[in-house]
């Protein structure tokens, strides 16, 4: 029997997607479909900022976290 772990959770997948969009936004402006997806995810009540932070760490932001947070705040994200 296959048990669903945290990495197979729908909310966790959405959080990783949101984190990837944030990382893309750091490098370049988001395209229109990416912006629409970001808006949908921002309105989704299933996950919190903390879950997105965990996804960022999962994707390897680690030591850059504080600088990344400053950039987000400066941009008005």
Structure description:
There is one protein chain. With 77 residues, the chain is mainly α. Helix content is 66%, strand content 0%. It has helices at residues 10-27, 32-43, 49-58, 65-75. The chain is globular. The chain starts with 9 loop residues before the first helix and ends with a helix. 8% of the residues are buried. The model has no long low-confidence stretch (mean pLDDT 83).
Looking at this protein, list some descriptive labels:
mainly alpha; globular; single chain; 66% helix; 77 residues
Topology diagram in text:
Blueprint: H1 10-27, H2 32-43, H3 49-58, H4 65-75
Helix pairs in contact: 1-2, 1-3
Q: What's the average pLDDT?
A: 83
Tally of helical segments: 4
Helix content: 55-70%
Low-pLDDT runs of 5+ residues are none
Q: Beta-strand percentage?
A: under 5%
What order do the helices and strands follow?
A: HHHH
**How many β-strand runs?**
0
Largest sheet: none
Briefly note the structural class of the backbone: mainly alpha
Q: Give the overall silhouette.
A: globular
Radius of gyration: 13 Å
The termini sit apart by 42 Å
Q: Briefly, what is this?
A:
66% of the residues lie in helices and 0% in strands. The longest helix is centred in the N-terminal third of the chain and has 18 residues, at 10-27.
């Amino acid at each position: 029997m296959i048990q669903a772990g945290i990495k197979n959770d729908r909310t966790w997948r959405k959080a990783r997607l949101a984190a990837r969009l944030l990382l893309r936004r750091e490098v370049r402006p988001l395209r229109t479909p990416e912006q629409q997806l970001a808006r949908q995810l921002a309105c989704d009540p299933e996950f919190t900022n903390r879950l997105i932070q965990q996804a960022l760490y999962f994707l390897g932001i680690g030591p850059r976290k504080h600088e990344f947070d400053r950039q987000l705040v400066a941009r008005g994200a």
